[in-house]
Structures are given as structure tokens and as C-alpha cells.
């Protein structure tokens, strides 16, 4: 379910969600057929990971910068980028950019909950993008840039709803519009389709350390615990 529904009826083109029947057909084979180890962390980007590892899927605009943020967090085991929340099976990046697959650019975050909590991961999520912008982040415009949290555990679901409510209150007090972030079970959002190899850890020193980063933030800190 969504946290706060927003009306996007006045949007058109890339800011209109494609109807499933109008989505591109996609393909049966994954576009990332031979995943390499994580360029920075050295871990598998597909798993399996150590017992107890949890996976949270976060969409916060361009997935290059989102992934970079999370691989630096202590307690994160691995990260990857891909496409989620849409219709087209195994889409390519070019297809997602047409807004005819329904996917949002998503970062997979695999983490050890004994070392980093869901609340800590979500605090970063809320502060490092603008969750009120609908189908865009800054100059990046389109349904692929929408904000989303796709959870896989009850702990994540509870933390997502609780942190969204708390952040919405402080944003409202500062005059911001309602949060447009989709909060949903990963099982309902559909598969996480791994993006092409060149997108994985795109901003690492081994690839494009000076590459593009877009994180339009509100500048509003997440509130401290009462």
C-alpha cells in the first residue's frame, strides 16, 4: 500500500504511469547474465549472503548515487542496482527510460540487522532525496525516478511506515507537500530485475568516481527520537 497517495492526473508523457497492457514486452532472459562481485565490497551482489542478512529495496531517484550512499554504510553487506515496481520483464535501461516499463530505478540493500537498523537505513533514505516530488528528482523527470520503499520483513514495514509518518510531520511544518513515496511489500512490487553490468557500482573508483549524482534533497533533517 502507499503511505500517502498523490494525484498525478495532470502529468503526461514520462510522468504518466504506463498501463500494464501498454508496457513494453521485455524478454525472458535477464540483462545481467553473469553478475560480478561487488566492485567495492567484494561480496556477491545477488546472494546468498550470511544467515540473518536482510534485504531492503529503496528507490530515491538515479540509482547510481543511491547505491553509492548505501555501500558506505557500516553493516551493509552488499548493494546492487536494478528495476522494480513495473510490468515489463527483464527490462533494459533504455526501455526503462522510455517510461513504458513502469519500473523505478531501485537500489538493493543487503544488510546485517545486528550492525545497522532499519530505522538507520531509512533515516538516510528520507534525508538524501526529496520524497515529495512525485515522478521526478530534481532535473531527473519520469516515472523511473519516483520514490519507493519495497520491504521484505515485518520489521522493515513497521520502520518504513513509522519513519514516513515522522518525516511527513516535519516536512509539513516546513511547508512541503505530502510525501509521495510508495511503501509496499516487495512481493507486491514484483521482481527486482538487476540492471546491466555497467550500472552496478557505477560511481566506484574502478568505474566512474566523478560520474553523475542527482540527489535533490529537502534539506530537512530527520527528527531525533523523542
TrEMBL record:
Gene for this chain: msrA1
Lineage of source species: Bacteria, Bacillati, Actinomycetota, Actinomycetes, Micrococcales
GO molecular function annotations of the record: peptide-methionine (S)-S-oxide reductase activity
Protein name (record): Peptide methionine sulfoxide reductase MsrA
GO BP field: cellular response to oxidative stress
InterPro entries: Met_Sox_Rdtase_MsrA_dom (IPR002569), Met_Sox_Rdtase_MsrA_sf (IPR036509), MsrA_MetSO_reductase (IPR050162)
Active site (catalytic residues): 62
Record has Oxidoreductase as a keyword: yes
Pfam families associated with the record: PMSR
Amino acid at each position: 500500500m502507499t503511505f500517502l497517495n498523490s494525484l498525478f492526473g495532470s502529468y503526461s508523457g514520462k510522468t504518466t504511469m504506463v498501463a500494464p497492457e501498454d508496457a513494453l514486452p521485455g524478454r525472458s532472459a535477464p540483462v545481467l547474465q553473469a553478475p560480478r562481485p561487488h566492485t567495492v565490497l567484494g561480496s556477491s551482489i545477488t546472494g546468498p549472503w550470511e544467515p540473518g542478512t536482510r534485504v531492503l529495496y529503496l528507490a530515491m531517484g538515479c540509482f547510481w548515487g543511491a547505491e553509492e550512499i548505501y555501500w558506505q554504510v557500516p553493516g551493509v553487506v552488499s548493494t546492487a542496482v536494478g528495476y522494480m515496481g513495473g510490468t515489463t520483464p527483464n527490462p533494459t535501461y533504455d526501455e526503462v527510460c522510455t517510461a513504458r516499463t513502469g519500473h523505478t530505478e531501485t537500489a538493493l540493500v543487503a544488510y546485517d540487522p545486528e550492525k545497522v537498523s532499519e530505522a538507520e537505513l531509512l533515516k538516510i533514505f528520507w534525508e538524501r532525496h526529496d520524497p515529495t516530488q512525485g515522478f521526478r528528482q530534481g532535473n531527473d523527470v519520469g516515472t523511473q525516478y519516483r520514490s519507493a520503499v519495497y520491504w521484505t520483513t515485518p520489521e522493515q514495514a513497521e520502520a518504513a511506515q513509522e519513519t514516513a509518518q515522522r518525516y511527513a510531520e516535519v516536512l509539513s511544518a516546513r511547508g512541503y507537500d505530502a510525501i509521495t513515496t510508495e511503501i509496499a511489500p516487495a512481493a507486491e512490487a514484483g521482481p527486482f530485475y538487476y540492471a546491466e553490468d555497467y550500472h552496478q557500482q557505477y560511481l566506484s573508483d574502478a568505474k566512474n568516481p566523478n560520474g553523475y549524482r542527482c540527489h535533490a534533497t529537502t534539506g530537512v533533517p530527520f527528527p531525533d527520537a523523542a
